[in-house]
């Protein structure tokens, strides 16, 4: 599993601290470099400036001062993680959040993103994690609740019976082998898509043959919807990681059908690793 | 004194049932009643061309059948020395003969051989075993093949976890202990009555709340109907004995909705133990 650069979008929130802690823990095991990035949203600066109406400082100066303060804070945040020979690169840029992050990810040759998910996107909006998720072609781990990193012994792989993503299986195996974890391959049966246990077994067995997974178990859980089933199972098994394959739909298609991966990310207390189907080309070895 | 009733027609499944009853009676220190039933000829005659049969001819024929039955029973008994087996030949319909025995002898278990039945016969007539299962006032164990009780390891109790089935679980546990088996508690999830994992588990927890269970495991199996769920699960998990409750619906109600237990009795290759809802312990 080739992870040389781990990218952590950082907004100074407690949750971002948790994500950074997790990233640091991972960096120690993989000897990766931590790239911590704060993006200064121009819109936010304007908004803050509006509040300080009596302040004679100009917009540009305000931004510069703000940047300086941020740099100090970011240095401070990264300080505790600079121990044990972990390389840390910090950056503060301003601009459109998602665009900037995407740009940095490509430029810096990032292998893995670890990000806090705030879940406050409202009904029509999307969280930053969701927006990023739809466009990247590298793995992303989402942290929704403060999580104490611990050795990964059990991974829940939530699968859809129908499509086959053989290329992504190689990546999953790489993660599994890195931690020598057990892989619980889970299919959730819902009332609208009822499947008999026989059918599920047959299809999942075929998946296992195609993917050549080892040290695995096949599970079926009945639930009213997929996210509920995945979370119920992961919590019951006390898994340390949930892996999901996301279709990375955007636009209207996404609005209509939603994304199970994103729903799970906004509800679970366990870190979720999303592998997009766009992931296919490069990291298959 | 535990009394086990074995209705027999001297077929191979019936002989296998007697063998199992004897094994059980040894374990329970009980006795066996071997019962052959001769149904009145008049009912057959009425079905043909209404030819009148002389009463004396009928009488002679019945005597012949009775003698024949006693002969066959004697032969069977010679194989089981030292076991308390009473023999009896009754005249009448199967249900009335069995009900009479159950009532007058305090029968606690009926063990019967079944040939199984399918197709139109199954819908319209049903097997005799099925009829007994439907009407009996005590549990009925049905089986086809020769069975060695000591070799049985996996016991299945398929249940909906309704409160009324709690006494049945308690009886199943007694059997589990007697034969030293692992108990599989199974909930079959069907599309018409979908239950989430969470709900099914909660029902199970509520159900077994005051009951002491050992050496057991809980399973949920999805299938389009309960009977197939129970049979497929039994095949997958190599179940040796299936225990199930039956609602004992009769008449039109039965014709329309059928019964899960009776379907299993008709189609399962394994021994099946049915507990009627009329059954009270």
Describe this structure in words.
The complex is a heterodimer of chains A (285) and B (281). Chain A is an alpha/beta fold. Chain A has helices spanning 14-30, 42-51, 59-79, 97-107, 128-133, 166-179, 197-211, 226-237, 251-257, 260-265; strands at 5-9, 33-40, 88-94, 112-116, 140-143, 154-158, 182-189, 216-222, 241-246, 272-276. Chain A is built from ten helices and ten strands. Chain A is globular, with a radius of gyration of 20 Å. Chain A starts with a strand and ends in a 9-residue tail after the last strand. With 281 residues, chain B is an alpha/beta fold. Chain B has eleven helices and ten strands. Chain B has a ten-stranded mixed beta sheet with strand order 3-2-1-4-5-10-9-6-7-8, with helices on both faces. The radius of gyration of chain B is 20 Å and the shape is globular. The model of chain B has no long low-confidence stretch (mean pLDDT 85). The chains are: A alpha/beta (285), B alpha/beta (281).
